[in-house]
């Protein structure tokens, strides 16, 4: 493993540990308002481009879209993933590198919305991070093709949410966060005609959905969230007009973590 990659892996592990949930999952006693928590939401777009759909949140986004009857075009990097995703009814899987603009544009052509969960924080051989280059390609291609609905998944710690992040976590993740923030800024500053939404999750955990996660405009919100809940929220955000041109953090207040030991509950963003 090259030294940069080794450093990033170590850094990610340190940060994940700092965000990681403690054993406690709080009883959602505050689950009183239906607007506060994850609710199913019907209609949406017909064919959605997903970058990052091979695994993690992106893969769960693909499943969620399919469950709502939405077709998916997934850009993935390996033959194995093309085969796995192509086996799902409603998915067109295209093999390609998101770092290549033409590949992204070709794959997205014909879609009416785009979601990118690209990331991973490792540098390509040319020293560039997919967290910026790939996400920027998705944004640019959407602009060129007239795909006006875009959801960009970044992270708490980007932009206005910097102060929410514990300093030790910010320190190890700052290079990756800066790349994600650069992609955010492209959307915010240059794509004023686009109906974008930026979703910034807290520390990700691979567990079943709790249904207690929230989107919030509170830039001080911090904590953990299950990947399945992020996917649910992203797909709900896609068909919620209220989320257009919004930057929303995503956390699960019922999970206590080292970053949110008191289980502070931010004001939830109403999706409808
Ligand atoms: N881990 C955390 O606690 C945390 C916290 C906040 C935000 N985030 C961010 O949330 C997002 C989802 O995270 P996750 O851990 O669920 O997923 P992940 O494992 O980081 O998956 C990233 C996705 O990007 C794809 N990808 C990377 N480089 C690519 C390239 N050059 N071309 C095409 N695809 C490429 C990966 O495909 P391959 O399978 O080919 O690698 C994968 O599908 C990421 O952006 C992550 O940085 C993570």
How would you sum up this structure, described in words?
The protein is α/β, with parallel strands linked by helices and 272 residues long. It has a single domain (40-254), classed as NAD(P)-binding Rossmann-like Domain (Rossmann fold, 3-Layer(aba) Sandwich), CATH 3.40.50.720. The protein has seven helices and twelve strands. It has helices spanning 3-19, 56-67, 79-86, 101-108, 130-145, 167-190, 227-238; strands spanning 21-25, 47-51, 71-76, 91-95, 113-116, 149-153, 195-201, 203-205, 214-216, 224-226, 246-251, 255-257. An eight-stranded mixed β-sheet has the order 4-3-2-5-6-7-11-9, sandwiched between helices. Strands 1-12 form a two-stranded antiparallel ribbon. A two-stranded parallel ribbon has the order 8-10. Helix 2 links the parallel strand 2 (47-51) and strand 3 (71-76). Helix 2 (56-67) crosses helix 7 (227-238) and helix 5 (130-145) runs parallel beside helix 6. It binds NADP nicotinamide-adenine-dinucleotide phosphate. Keywords: Oxidoreductase, Signal. Residues 52-240 form the NAD(P)-binding domain.
């Amino acid at each position: 493993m090259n030294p940069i990659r080794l450093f990033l892996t170590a850094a990610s592990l340190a940060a994940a540990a700092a965000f990681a949930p403690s054993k406690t999952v709080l009883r959602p006693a505050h689950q009183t308002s239906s607007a506060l928590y994850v609710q199913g939401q019907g209609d949406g777009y017909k064919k959605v481009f997903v970058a990052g759909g091979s695994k993690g949140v992106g893969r769960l986004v693909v499943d969620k879209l399919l469950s709502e009857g939405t077709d998916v075009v997934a850009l993935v990097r390996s033959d194995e993933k093309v085969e796995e995703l192509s086996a799902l009814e409603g998915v067109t899987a295209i093999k390609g590198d998101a770092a290549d603009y033409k590949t992204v544009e070709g794959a997205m052509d014909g879609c009416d919305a785009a979601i990118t969960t690209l990331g991973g924080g490792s540098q390509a051989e040319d020293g560039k991070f997919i967290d910026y280059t790939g996400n920027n390609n998705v944004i640019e291609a959407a602009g060129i093709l007239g795909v006006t609905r875009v959801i960009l998944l970044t992270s708490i710690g980007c932009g206005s949410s910097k102060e929410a992040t514990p300093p030790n976590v910010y320190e190890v993740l700052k290079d990756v966060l800066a790349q994600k923030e650069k992609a955010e800024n492209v959307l915010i500053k240059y794509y004023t005609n686009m109906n974008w939404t930026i979703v910034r999750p807290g520390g990700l955990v691979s567990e079943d959905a709790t249904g207690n996660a929230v989107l919030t405009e509170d830039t001080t919100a911090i904590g953990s969230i299950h990947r399945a809940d992020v996917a649910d929220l992203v797909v709900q955000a896609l068909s919620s007009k209220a989320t257009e041109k919004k930057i929303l953090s995503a956390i699960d207040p019922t999970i206590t973590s080292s970053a949110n030991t008191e289980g502070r509950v931010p004001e939830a963003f109403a999706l409808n």
